[in-house]
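User: I'm writing a tutorial on reading structure tokens. Could you give me a worked example: one chain, its sequence, then its tokens, then a sentence or two explaining what the tokens reveal?
Assistant: Sure. Here is the example chain.
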Amino acid sequence: MSTWMVVEDEPDIYEVLLAMFEMWGIEGVAFVDGEEAVAWIDDVDNGRFKGELPELALLDIRLPGDINGIEVGRRLRESPILGKIAIVLTTGYQMEAENKEEAMVVTKADLWLPKPLPKFNELQGTLESVIAKRRQQNAQAIFVTEPEPDNDDTETIPSRTAAMKASTSKSFKKTDKLRRPSSEESSATADTANLPSESDTPVSNS
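And here are its predicted structure tokens:
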């Protein structure tokens, strides 16, 4: 079973998301603020977490406390273990174009997904597509950066260049795992057309 990570402070949203994940056969791990999410990332990096690691992180930008979703995304990218997972940034607040661009660059996010989030089937397809694209990028990166095999009999390009010039010489890489929703919650979720949006009045900064 795949695992997806959610960092979201609105209970109505993360409970619906976790219910959706369960219906899709996905294990959900959720955090309600940035501090708990970063503490969990530290546990992963230090070998204190032994569970299945997520392949996607859905990060709300506006979070309570001193660590927002952008900082969580930056910390994920710094992780030697979690650094290559798919990251989706989400918010219900309006942001200036330059701030949005900066958030995407800092987190190297794969997608910007404004709230209210898409409908059930559309959201599933969107997130699965993001994961597939990230897997492909990671595979290509491994292929490109894989070192050439060491062969003492093979001259380097500089060696061949030197040989042409002079034949005499050669140069020679809250923290709570929230409960998985009950079957009643999951059934109720199936009829939900849209995820709830944040109720606060939008502001310009996240």
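What the tokens reveal: The chain has one domain: 3-146+173-190. The radius of gyration is 22 Å.
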